Amino acid sequence: MQVEGSSAIVVGGTGGLGQATVRRLHAAGAKVVIADVNDEKGKELEEELGVRYVNTDAGDEDSVSAAIAEAQSLAPLRISVDCHGGPAGGGRLVGKDGSAMPLEAFTKTIQSYLTSTFNVMRLAAAAIAQQDPFDEEGSRGVIINTASIAGYEGQIGQLPYAAAKGGVIGMTLVAARDLSPLGIRVNTIAPGTILTPAYGKAGDQLEAYWGPQVPHPKRMGRPNEYATLVASIVENDYLNGEVIRLDGALRFPPK
């Protein structure tokens, strides 16, 4: 798939993973729309790179549709990357005081990470399906979602987050099968521990804790490694229906 001459939407494009992805796709020649809620960072990137920023709530249909329309105005939409963040509500299923986890702690996290991912995916798929195929095989584009290795081996206290990311993992193959007649591929990246600027000064402590636990290389992941994998997925037309772990062979312990 040729990135140059296509438009791409990056939901969560002002975050660590998102910024790296925006830069990578922009450098490859895509017309990129950053869809996020951080206006300050979004406008800074817009001015620096010449990309577009649209304030976007990933869970809101009209908001996501507006960002997609902006991308379609630039070039045929063929790439959707969703790496938005949100509140990772947690706690044990039954607390030390004997009380059950509040239902809201679960439903908020599911809404943020799973329902919103589905919302972006369905709207992006419908828009990509409107484009003319770019090859003789009927290919139209690719959707890349973001899960977490917590979706496989969530830690104690991560039940809502693990359930949400496990749901993103579970949607991948089904969505790829659903969209195959339209020539749209669907893949998911499941990162391990990625050191992003959002951690600030706490990043050194996290690196010291997680780095030694990663088999190789013994460090946390880097945002540009996520972006490199995005680019590889976009360019490889035979990669479809896959969840790819990006974790240095790390497996989360119980806690």
TrEMBL record:
EC code: 1.1.1.100, 1.1.1.35
Sorted UniProt keywords: Oxidoreductase
Record carries keyword Cytoplasm: no
PROSITE patterns in the record: ADH_SHORT
GO molecular function: (3S)-3-hydroxyacyl-CoA dehydrogenase (NAD+) activity; 3-oxoacyl-[acyl-carrier-protein] reductase (NADPH) activity
Pfam families with a match to the protein in the record: adh_short
Source organism superkingdom: Bacteria
Keyword Oxidoreductase assigned: yes
Family, per entry: Belongs to the short-chain dehydrogenases/reductases (SDR) family.
PANTHER family: 17-BETA-HYDROXYSTEROID DEHYDROGENASE 14-RELATED, SHORT-CHAIN DEHYDROGENASE/REDUCTASE
Name assigned to this protein: 3-hydroxyacyl-CoA dehydrogenase
